[in-house]
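Collaborator request, handled under Task 6.
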Amino acid sequence: MNQTSPLFSPLACLCALGLVACGPEPAQSNEPFGILNDSFPLLVHGWDGAQFTIETVPRRILPLNAGAVDALVALTGPERLVALPSLAAEYSTFPADAEAWLSLPQFSEISAAAILAFEPDLVIGHEWQAKSAAAYLRQAGVAVLILPMPTTFDDVSREIDILGRVIDASSEATALLTQLERRRAALRTGAEKRSFVRVLGYSNYGTGGWAAGADTTCDITISLAGMRNAARDVGLENFNEIDYELLLRLDPDLILVEVEEGGVAGPTESLLLGEAPLKGLSALSTGGLVRLPRRLNSTTSLRMLDAAERLADAADKWLEDAALAASREPQRLRD
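Structure tokens returned to the collaborator:
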């Protein structure tokens, strides 16, 4: 990109076009997270407490992570984005005709300078990302919407509603939310038969195992599918390092593992199947490994519902297989 003079900077262009309200760092407010009025200019209260104005409909949107990309893919088209985070190709879910999305410029550095180079009029990120960059961007006059990490799927729904209003896609957001609720209802319909099944989200890349407890997106996925999180059941919160002894003591019915592109077994699955001390895990002898692609296993977005549907389908098959095996047991004993 050509260098610009101070009189013709990206910031100057944004201010001149009236896309953002330029000036000092936005005031902090005690208003609840959300949008405080119904039409542009929108007065927005971010989750981080910053209150700012979006003067006109954003046309140059820049998402900072794969979860934000997932939401935007569901609500709008690639023509309204100026760039994607480089990990989106691996961690986000795109439509079948993804070429227009994946041909967007990509960035790997989250810094104010790198972001300003794309001349965005709206930046969307989550609470765990570079707060210093967000503060600098706001001082430069760029609207930065910071979203909270979801702790329930209702949080995801609220995020979709807010994003729909912020990017002037409220009708799309309403239709999407209706569709998501229909899918959640379908999961609830079959949840009772799965309610006793204990699931563990587990990862191990050879340097130690980790389990996903309460307040993780994996926990939300398991809950959506109508099952119990084995790590939550023993009081584990967030991500916890667990040794083989605890893993064997938990002995979950199903273990969620990540698979590589094309369904190739990942390091966690290979380790579970190859470690002699773990042969006693019930899930290994009953077909209880549930394989999720990275974009679903690591998602923080509405795609948790995709993951939950896959988990529910796998659990239903596991239950059917277990019932079939049990029905054959009396015959085996007679023989």
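The cover message to the collaborator said: "The domain at 6-183 is CATH 3.40.50.1980 (Rossmann fold). The CA atoms of residues 178 and 302 lie 13 Å apart. Please let us know whether this matches your experimental observations."
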